[in-house]
Amino acid sequence: MNKNVTEFREYREKMNKEILSADNLVIKRLFNLDMKTYQDGELSAKTKEILGLVSSMVLRCDDCIKYHLEKCYNLKVNDAELYEIFSVANVVGGSIVIPHMRRAIEYWNDLKQE
Amino acid sequence: MNKNVTEFREYREKMNKEILSADNLVIKRLFNLDMKTYQDGELSAKTKEILGLVSSMVLRCDDCIKYHLEKCYNLKVNDAELYEIFSVANVVGGSIVIPHMRRAIEYWNDLKQE
Amino acid sequence: MNKNVTEFREYREKMNKEILSADNLVIKRLFNLDMKTYQDGELSAKTKEILGLVSSMVLRCDDCIKYHLEKCYNLKVNDAELYEIFSVANVVGGSIVIPHMRRAIEYWNDLKQE
Amino acid sequence: MNKNVTEFREYREKMNKEILSADNLVIKRLFNLDMKTYQDGELSAKTKEILGLVSSMVLRCDDCIKYHLEKCYNLKVNDAELYEIFSVANVVGGSIVIPHMRRAIEYWNDLKQE
Amino acid sequence: MNKNVTEFREYREKMNKEILSADNLVIKRLFNLDMKTYQDGELSAKTKEILGLVSSMVLRCDDCIKYHLEKCYNLKVNDAELYEIFSVANVVGGSIVIPHMRRAIEYWNDLKQE
Amino acid sequence: MNKNVTEFREYREKMNKEILSADNLVIKRLFNLDMKTYQDGELSAKTKEILGLVSSMVLRCDDCIKYHLEKCYNLKVNDAELYEIFSVANVVGGSIVIPHMRRAIEYWNDLKQE
Does F96 touch chain D (CB under 8 A)? Predict the structure, then answer.
């Protein structure tokens, strides 16, 4: 098991558990909706995860990128497709997206090494 | 021809022409790359336009949204798919995306009335 | 009735109705959650609307600002309080918030003239 | 003394001291104004710190969040109130706010352990 | 006198006057600091206005862009320099900056027609 | 050689090499354009790097800030000039820029210690 992937997952899971245990209705429903959003529908789960990834990149949220990278990896997005998603993110969002692309590639490699 | 669609296109075209006539090499190449980004490749042009649309929504750029809406419309994105793109944009980007969704729907209606 | 206030409300209502009629489950629940968020709880509805207003200002969403301004107005936020909300928004978000403060004041005046 | 809290405070203090010693008039006045903004006025210091916190969350500035969390903690914001502030931040700013909420909860726990 | 330039100036002046008359100390000092920031110092006023312009472009604040464009125009920034500022803004901030560049060019033309 | 500077450079170089080896045409051209943007032209390379720095600060991209800080350092930007760039970034972008200024000063010190 790759250490970076495991650490990310464990921290995420631990904190989500604490957040949900706080019993704030709005936050609980938001977490629930967040998962529902990426399920198969008119658009496939794969397309939706790609949408989640590109949105996370242009908004420059590293943890969100990691989360969607794992989903994309499991849904068989390949390397060439990944770089095309990155190309859209970089063109739309500019060179400030590049550092996030570097870390995304590093995490993508981590996912492969699992 | 719908007036809003025509006006948007004409203003965009007129200003792009003036910008490109200024002969700034970096800007000319960026404009060129911008078009290349959304061509068929590993991902289809349709998927890429959907990526452009969702990115424009979470970054809240109305003119970018209009541009990609027209491309999506021409590439046969249907209403149910459009709302799923919007659902991702709203979940990722929050309620500040809603006013842009309202204007996007309005423009989508304009595109249909052409 | 002030014309700007009426127009804003009517456009918002008309488009929301169309959006909700599309029957996208995620979007419908988000709209529902959005309202729930600002109800009396541990923090008063007034404090929550103030939070919604300052968030909308630093994120520079004019329509969101208008919406929360009306709520704040109905919940008896006074002028001096309003300017203190603006002062936080300007300090945190910088001078790019100023144009939104100008339009917010204009709309605040419109709300008073109703 | 919790190590994370101490380290954050010390780094912040050390760098602020160096920045202020550079004697740039605009920056010195900004730092001064920044403190003035959150003092008791028409709105209480507590309400203003809550405004500072929610603004920092939707703008996704971890260090700003930590700073306002400590102020909120000292001004007796309780856990249930904190989660309501988070609920507004998440609804307005979307799921990209979630990773910052996770880190905020972690730091909130650190503040309690002091 | 060009109508767009006049209208922008008059609205800005009118609202600033109202804002300052509200006598909020933080906002008054921020407005004062804002002007001080762009005065000749180690960097020339011209360089600082160029910095203000590029910052306003990547943050996509049309009114801020107009304000700095007028200052740049008065400080003799020429067309070729302007396009190089735009090229930095577009490369750093991505294609979402393009619609703001279009409107900036339009306003630049308005400033010349005065 | 300062360790922080060396590590930043090496990571950046290693990941850029991997990204470029993926042979995505759009990304390769963007990387190429990115370098072209900051070359001497109507505005000097020094002025352009200052523009790149201020843009990176208001957009709050730490890695972009480090990159442009090194360029500015090599092009003989002095401390007083640096603080004036920071003053513009802080006034335009607000107090959320301050944590990035702290880290920028720290890296600037690292660059001097090489």
Answer: yes
Q: Which of E112, A91, C103, C59 minimizes the C-alpha distance to B94?
A: C59
Say if residue F113's pLDDT is above 90: yes
Lookup: tokens for A78: 């390949």
Cβ distance A55 to B50 less than 8 Å, yes or no, reads: no
pLDDT tens per residue across span C35-87: 999 999 999 999 999 999 999 999 999 999 999 999 999 999 999 999 999 99
- Among residues B64, B71, B62, the alpha carbon closest in space to that of B100 is found at B62
Rounded Cα–Cα distance for residues A18 and A21 (Å): 5
Q: Is C12 on the interface with B (CB under 8 A)?
A: yes
- Find the domain containing F99 and state its range: 3-112
The number of C-alpha atoms within 13 Å of B84 and in the hemisphere containing its C-beta is 23
Q: Which two tokens stand for residue F50?
A: 């200052």
F25 touches chain B (CB under 8 A): yes
DSSP for E42-76 reads SS-HHHHHHHHHHHHHHTT-HHHHHHHHHHHHHTT
Q: Is C100 helix (H, G, I), strand (E, B) or coil?
A: helix
Q: Which chains touch D (3 or more CB pairs under 8 A)?
A: A, B, C, E, F
C31 in contact with chain A, both atoms CB, cutoff 8 A: no
E75 token code pair? 């400080």
Structural domain tally of chain A?
1
Q: In this complex, how many residue pairs, one in chain C and one in chain F, have their CB atoms less than 8 Å apart?
A: 26
F92 touching D (Cβ < 8 Å): no
The 10s digit of each residue's pLDDT in B52-79 is 999 999 999 999 999 999 999 999 999 9
8 Å CB contact of E30 and C60: no
Encoded tokens for D90: 């998440």
Query: Length of chain C in residues, anyone?
Result: 114
Structural contact between residues B54 and A111, judged by C-beta atoms closer than 8 angstroms: no
- The alpha carbon of residue A22 is apart from the nearest alpha carbon of chain E, in Å, by 36
What pLDDT sits at residue F85? 98
pLDDT, tens digit, 9 for 90 and up, residues B22-55: 999 999 999 999 999 999 999 999 999 999 999 9
Chains with 3 or more CB pairs under 8 A to chain A: B, C, D, E, F
* Chain D residues whose beta carbon lies within 8 Å of the beta carbon of residue E30: 33
The torsion of the CA quartet B37, A60, A4, F22, rounded to 10 degrees, works out to 20
- Is residue B1 predicted with pLDDT exceeding 90? no
Q: What is the ipTM of this complex?
A: 0.97
> Nearest CA of chain F to the CA of D104: how many Å?
16
pLDDT of residue A1: 80
In terms of CA atoms, which chain B residue is nearest residue A37? B88
Q: What is the pTM of this model?
A: 0.98
Best C26, C30, C55 residue to mutate vs chain D (most D CBs within 10 Å): C55
Exposure on the CB side of residue E45, measured as CA atoms within 13 A: 13
Dist CA F33 CA F30 (whole Å): 5
Report the CATH number that the domain containing residue F82 is assigned in CATH: 1.20.1290.10
Q: Which of D46, D95, C6 is nearest to A31 (CA)?
A: D95
Sign of the torsion angle spanned by Cα atoms D2, D7, D10, D12: negative
Burial of E76 (0-12, 13-18, 19+ CB in 10 A): exposed
